[in-house]
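If you are new to this repository, start here. Below is one unmodified record pulled from the training split, so you can see the exact layout before writing a loader.
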Amino acid sequence: MTGVQTCALPISHRVYVEEAGAGIPLLCLHTAGADTRQYRGILNEPGILKDFRVIAFDLPWHGKSSPPAGWHNADYQLTSRDYLDIIVAMVDALQLDKPVAMGCSIGGRIALHLALEYPQQFRAIIGLQAGAHVDPYYDLNWLHRPDVHGGEVAAGIVSGLMGPRSPEAERWETLWHYMQGGPGVFKGDLHFYTKDGDVRSRVSDIDTAGCPLYLLSGEYDYSCAPDDTRDLARRIKGTQAVIMEGLGHFPMSEDPARFLTYLLPVLDEIRRR
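And here is the target side for that same chain:
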């Protein structure tokens, strides 16, 4: 498949993909600086796998998707165009017929872009922690410095975004994913999240008539606060929005069991459609 780094020409990428189940394709998009391990609970849920083909892939530079040759000669920086091209290329490469797209955090943000630019290619779109914009609330330069451990800094930054009732084991597994990120990758993703991916002026143009949009947001999240989700629901006609009690910014990995109580009804509705 192809995507774009910080230059103008396409770059070839080797991308890691895993899947389970059969039926309606459900394409899962991980958060900034992390990888598909966040969707372990979805990939192992029999109640989903009987009707859905769950597909998760690591973005280039993330998890088991290595960066392209020559990566050391340029800084990694994700843009909305890069992100959209990667997702569309993945849908084409896997020959997915009207998949459901579900993304969290930066995946939730790009879900809004998909709803704007490619609604005809998707059966439905689910945005988890899908805010239209967020201003940086810490110095991003701490994420890529030679005198600090970027992974531990990243984990420390995101630790406060999780719900206080999330099980300890799942909380720490979520943080472990962040501790393992490549140098500069989390920072590069946040270029999209805090600057390039700002879609505030366009969300009211989303048409949910042909491609339903569902917004599921945890109540314990100051990166995409409940009021941000409520604001989107007011501005996007036909959007279904739910605030998930007890959950934070990483619902599918910090407390998979609780998250499933909110996700399963949405998937049932999509299946009935």
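Two things worth knowing about this chain: Residues 1-9 have pLDDT under 50 and may be disordered. Residues 94 and 262 are 28 Å apart (CA to CA).
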